[in-house]
Amino acid sequence: MNERRQAIANLIKTTKLENTKIARELVSSNPLFEGESVESLRKYVGEVRKELYELALKEGLGIDAVAIPESRYEEPAQYELTGKIGILNDIHIPFHDKRALETAINYLIKYEPDILYLNGDIGDFYAESKFMRDPKYRDAIIEIRAIKQFLEFVKSKFQTIYYYEGNHERRWQNYLWQHAPELASLESLNLSSVIGADDLGIEFITNGSLVRAGKLNIIHGNEIQAGGLINVARNKLIRAFDNVIFGHHHFKDERIERSLSGQPIGAWGVGCLCGLKPEYRRINNWVHGFATVEVYNDGSIEVENKKLINYKVK
Ligand SMILES: [Zn+2]
């Protein structure tokens, strides 16, 4: 918008003056319009007003709302999943439990899901961690290669795969933002590109996106900061006010309640597939597990929250 137009637009937005008064005001007090005829300027003001009005209509705003600054807010992305879904989370490659992972994948191969959903913390991203860690394990190359190998493997077994970013995947972006912000927006440095998900046709979903499978919300678990060691599922349910399945806590937990009208709602915490006694937390209440979800045509769902006891699916 040129300077003259801008000056007119400002007066339209910030005053209630009609076109002739705006023209008169500009001619008498703004050097950009000095000596102009009020009559011809009045027509120009009318044109600008019409343009602003149409713009406001297009954006669904009232004409006055045009004066409100541009918003940088962005709605989160939304995904709707249907059919049979196999869910794996918290594998923490390269600190995974090979036998637990193999057991879960074998079960899912027989289950024949339409979608394999990798629900976050699939890689540990130890090398990019901000915590004090053993330098001998801080090797991004080994880590990335192992995650790539895992993705290639699951892609050979399952056709449609989604990979949802957990808090551990987020370490990649945080590392770049902190140590190489100038490079952070390079597409080839996107995590989905680095771990080969893009090339394999695996859809990478940003943490915080809204993912629904029928009436069930699928989150990694870090999005709702309500944990605790005992009532994990209940704490999530209270915050979600909706059906929700999550990982993140490495702990199998369920809570099913009913609303006053009798509607059941549930929260399911799914176990992990990593080694159960890592050096940073030898003592914990973790358990191996994975889940299947079937979405029916009416949106109703059936969740099977599986645990592994001594590498047997229960
Ligand atoms: Zn997590």
Describe the protein in words:
The protein is α/β, with parallel strands linked by helices. It is built from 9 helices and 13 strands. The strands form 2 sheets. Strands 5-4-3-2-11-12-13 form a 7-stranded mixed β-sheet, covered by helices on one side. Strands 1-6-7-8-10-9 form a 6-stranded mixed β-sheet, covered by helices on one side. Strand 11 and strand 12 (301-309) form a beta hairpin. The N and C termini lie far apart (66 Å). The mean pLDDT is 92. The structure holds zinc ion (ZN). Zinc ion (ZN) binds at residues 120-121, 166-168, 220-222, 248. Residues 120-121, 166-168, 220-222, 248 line the site of zinc ion.
Task: Give a nutshell description of this structure.
The chain has helices at 3-14, 19-29, 38-58, 98-111, 140-157, 170-179, 191-194, 197-200, 232-240; strands at 78-81, 83-88, 115-119, 161-164, 203-205, 210-213, 216-218, 244-246, 253-258, 264-269, 288-295, 301-309, 312-313.
Number of separate strands: 13
Number of domains: 2
* CATH class membership of the largest domain: Alpha Beta
Rg calc: 27 Å
Spell out the helices and strands N to C: HHHEEHEHEHHHEEEHEEEEEE
Structural class: alpha/beta
CATH topology of the largest domain: Purple Acid Phosphatase, chain A, domain 2
Given the structure, what is the number of helices? 9
CATH homolog superfamily of the largest domain: Metallo-dependent phosphatases
Main beta sheet: 7 strands, mixed
- Please bin the fraction of helical residues: 25-40%
Bin the strand percentage: 15-25%
